[in-house]
Amino acid sequence: MPLVTLLPVYHLLLPSFTPRDLWLKDSAGRAGGAGRGRPSPTALSREDLWVREGRILDPEKLFFDERRLADERRDCGGCILAPGFIDVQINGGFGVDFSLATEDVGSGVAVVAQKILAHGVTSFCPTLVTSPPEVYHKVLPQIPVKKGGPHGAGVLGVHLEGPFISQQKRGAHPEAHLRSYETNAFQDVLATYGPLDSVRILTLAPELGRSQEVIRELTSRGICVSLGHSMANLQTAEDAVRSGASFITHLFNAMLPFHHRDPGIVGLLTSDRVPPDRPIFYGMIADGIHTNPAALRIAHSAHPRGMVLVTDAIPALGLGNGRHTLGQQVVEVDGLSAYVAGTSTLCGSIAPMDVCVRHFLQATGCSLEAALEAASLHPAQLLGLEQHKGTLDFGADADFVVLDDALHVQATYISGELVWQATMAGQ
Amino acid sequence: MKLIVTENYSQASEWAAKYIRNRIIQFNPGPQKFFTLGLPTGSTPIDCYKKLIEYYNNGDLSFKFVKTFNMDEYVGIPRDHPQSYHSFMWNNFFKHIDIDPQNTHILDGNAADLQAECAAFEDKIKEAGGIELFLGGIGPDGHIAFNEPGSSLVSRTRVKTLAMDTILANARFFQGDLSKVPTMALTVGVGTVMDSREVMILITGAHKAFALYKAIEEGVNHMWTVSAFQQHPKVVFVCDEDATLELKVKTVKYFKGLMLVHSKLVDPLYSMKEEGRPSKKPYSD
Fold first, then answer.
1. Which residues does chain B have within 8 Å of residue A63's beta carbon, measured at their own beta carbons?
2. pLDDT digits (tens, 9 = 90+) for A329-374
3. Does the ipTM exceed 0.85?
4. NCBIfam families per the record (chain A) (predicted)?
5. How far apart are CA B101 and CA A330, in angstroms?
6. C-alpha to C-alpha distance for A115 and A95, rounded to whole angstroms
């Protein structure tokens, strides 16, 4: 396998016809991802990737049924093609804070959506931290579900983190705005957020009173319930999973530490008291700072199929080293660490997704395929999107990322369209 | 008849691939002049296909003006079944080269009217001007395509019921479930292959030694259908040492003595690239 650090060479072979068939020539390279009937975890294989009308095409059918060739061929120069990354927890970046109730949250989301293409992210869930109800009512309608494209990564729906979380484990969430739904259960949830149409994930603390009925109501509406910022013991967590919860928000962070007589939420990774047919997924900030590599390895060894890499990035993501004013806070960025200025207090993650994938690979020594799937297939499965996203199976959306052998992003495609390329960015 | 004796399977495969390469290039195919190639499936031709793919990847050979006709296909299994010959050709050859799908022909084992499908296949071969070179392999019982022992030596493309032996041997490809193994196939006839202007048969391995002996040292016999090619004006058998085990020493020595002459068929090796430019990498032997 030739090691290619050059960019893919694109060349047009034939004039275009409609519908367009795009053949990403990968004769010396490999395409990754779950697929082609192979059991997961999959292995990289040498294949060409065919695209038509934004979806991945079965070239054998094209050959024998339609007896056609590709209209256009692109040589990916032996790079790895992997499903586009999906970030289910990102609070902002590039100076934009999704939780800030401005008149124009939409354009802030658009900025982030566009910038994260360079990191191989093709869809994401903008995440709102604990805020007063007015903010939700104002911001949520401004972040609709949106298809990705040259304008930026697709918005799969909002991730609401709080305010129904534990006071003791609130972390950086403002205490004044924490709430409970003890009085009217789901009606309190609706009253707080307003319409939930664009909501995809909701992080709550399951030990709050009437949590089980709220979880049942949310999951029946297709919203993924995640457990986090919580003091819950394992039994409460298991009850929540039986009620429909399927995700754990930034494992290890903002929850009870693992104890052998009560492993807490962490114990869900190996619990045998949850439905075996519904896998538990857990978010992991693999930036090398927020989770010790040893803890990363423990989680991954215990439950590799549930690992979902998240950035949990704050607005300082992508701003570069130095001091930045973000809202009321002054932040000092040094490499992958962001501190409250003048202190040694970490104030959030600023590692982009591709950095997390590389760190995860290096820290756990897992296979390349496992690292790629933790950022693509697993979040897609979590959201029930694995037929369309997080895979390079025939029929899936042609959202994929072109990577060199060290997993540095060379190009990003959404719906078969080139939306970012390393040369375009002048790197 | 020529008999090419090579050291082993991989050399036999490469010799066959080089021969096909030279024949295509010397034919000088173009938009008005297609080279028609008959193709087999099975384990024997796999390395030969790999070599042809390598030549294509290095720019030495193009299949742009090549038409292919496959020997056979099962009846009643889905076209995209992993054991179908469509899948075989796609995975082992077609998807790797620049052939136009319009120029490939494989019998449709799911056609509503199987006999009409066979007749149409013969017509398509005629329309293409007949087959220039038919590459084939044989079974240990000397069958060519699905023309099993006892098949007529003047047979044409038709529906064949598979022998119990073949069905049992194939069961391993269908999870050992006999009920899933196809019991019928469409196949070109011995006569169809005989009509090609040239036939090349690949035979390797000790288990096929008896078949090679029956093919070239005994008389023409419909119980060993491959023996029919003794009456073909231009046929070349490419084998490895193991496949010669049942031949007379005299036969083997005679043909080995001719190797000096026969090797000129593949040496020099022609390329579709401009004259004088070396190919990207030397080919392994």
1. 90, 94-95, 101, 104
2. 788 898 888 888 888 877 789 999 999 999 999 999 999 999 999 9
3. yes
4. nagA
5. 63
6. 11
